[in-house]
Amino acid sequence: MAILAVPAILWLTLYITKGRFLRHPFERMASQLADRPVAVAGDFQLYFDPINIKFVADRLTIANPKWASRPHLLKSDHVLVRLSTGKLILGKRVIKRLELDKGAADLEWSRDGRSNTWTLGDQRKPKPFKLPEIVQGRATSTTVHYRNPAVQLIADIGINTLAAKDTRFTDQIIFSGDGTLRARPFTVSGRLLSPNETIAGGENKLVLHANAADTVIDVNGTLPGATQIEGADLYMQVRGSNLARLFDFIGIAVPETRRYRIRSALTYQDKTWRFTRLRGVFGDSDIRGRMTVAMPKDRMRLTADIATNSLNMIDAGPFIGYDPTRLDSHGAGGVVVKQGGTPRILPDAPLRIEAIRNFDADVIYKVRAVRPATVPISNVGLTLSLDHSLLKLSPLTFDMAGGFLSSDIIINARNMPVRSSYDIRLSPTPMGKLLARWGVEESGTSGILKGRLEMAGTGDTVHKSLASSNGRIAVVIPRGTMWTRNIQLSELDIGVFIQKMFEKKLKKPVQINCGLIAFTVRDGVASADPILIDTTKNVIVGRGSFSFKDESLDMAVRADGKKFSLFSGQSPIGVGGYFAQPTIDPISPELIARAGTGLALGAFLSPFAAILSFIDVGDAQSAACGPVLSGARAIAQRTSKGKPREDVGWGTPSKQKGG
């Protein structure tokens, strides 16, 4: 009995006195444990009421470290805390009730990231901020200041509780504030509908609205507890002008986009944010899928499996560095910009090296169809991985005009300068389908193209990497036919070019024995090596080059007849101008007038789809076609009698025979 009497006397003493005599011992012990001053200047209570611990402190202050921007971690006119004694014994911190009046909390990380204001005592192991479970809370005129230099986040939030006036309603914890994240200002507001004593145990309904420039986020749903995110069941809607700006807020670099609108279910489980049932649009394209953002080993990791049913080609432009604002206002013509008075189409947007250093990623992206229908691309598949600044687009595949293109692109930003390598392969593709929009007839055209591009260069933009690249480009044309009947003047017409190479009007298809359009690339300049197409009536050869540096074209192609013809032995047809504005000479005035904006979409595909290279040895049927079909360099090309060819190779158009 005596053993039971002692705790009973202690409990009764504390209950009668409210534990007020413990104020000074509390201040002393709390200051020692926290390694900073803790003081109570007003009323103090600490006792069991009747079983749970009740703590009351008026004018409580807990000091901050000297490096902090504000003097106090916590300062409040009135604090009331009820702790669950049973759960505390089991090692769980559960606050059954918390009241704060005119409170001010300052939560900061030091600039070096080694200390924070809320990890009390031993600062050798600073802990992320985590609120204990709070069953019921009430705050009046309370503010929270948060600062994290590592992610460039500063926030000031005001919190108040509106008490329910009727048992049919719940209390509302309302909050609002502003701040900056990565130097971008934002505002946030919302409310938490938490149960009052009358209907305790109900759901905690969260409604949140955030606005940052033109990015708007709305979140609503339920929380398992007033301060519990784990296991939350939330629904998010977000919209804005550029999806990249949204991800900037969490330190993840994604491609630029046109205006977007996305909705998703949102949960937080096992330290991972999960976005499921994701649906939305960007520009004129749709998107769906799922995504997670986690922090394994304290490093952010993005995982996504997303798909697009119908992709507008213009919306793909920002993925490789084209300005989404220009695409919005100019359409496909927005890929063309003027630099030094000349048109450019290769993207010059720099890779965000500092941003990609902060996270890793694994993304699968699929596209079923690409618009407009004149772009012969479908069934796009992309596997992207980012591992400590090593970015791989491998494989990147799509169907193209009855053929199949596969590629592996690797961008290594682990060391400076950034190094990029491109390996792009085109399977046998029908020429009739691929070139149909330029006047080549599918009916009567049996020829195919096979190709490969292998290049590597340095620089943090697509333009810089190609402008410094070395490698090989080749397109092989095995035996087949080509026919162009109707002159279509909607664009600079390849059909017209073909007619000029053979005769003004083709009455039947051209029989191609074999062909090779190849370039050797050195320091961003691609020189013909060789251009050689053998037909039943002509041998077409070309010389010259094009440059990834200034995007200029300087080539000449001629057709030498095998038999006497009024149309054989033509003077060379020059191909000049720029990627964005190519010219053909001689050329009709009608085509010159129509050769402007119609080129933009075709140019949009270069250099990845328009110029391809190497290929495996094809079905060569003659010795002369062997080196052609194997993609050999000019020095290895031979005549049908086995003699070295002297009419192919590097050089300028002015050196072309007869030019």
Strand-residue fraction? 35-45%
Structural class: mainly beta
Please tally the β strands and state the result: 35
Describe the global form.
Answer: elongated
How many helices in DSSP terms? 13
> What share of the residues lie within helices?
10-25%
Spans where pLDDT lies below 50 across 5 or more residues: 197-201, 487-493, 564-570, 587-623, 651-659
Overall pLDDT, averaged? 81
The tally of structural domains comes to 4
Q: N-to-C terminal Cα separation, in Å?
A: 119 Å
Rg, Å, rounded? 35 Å
Largest sheet composition: 33 strands, mixed
Main features:
single chain, 659 residues, mainly beta, 4 domains, two-stranded antiparallel ribbon
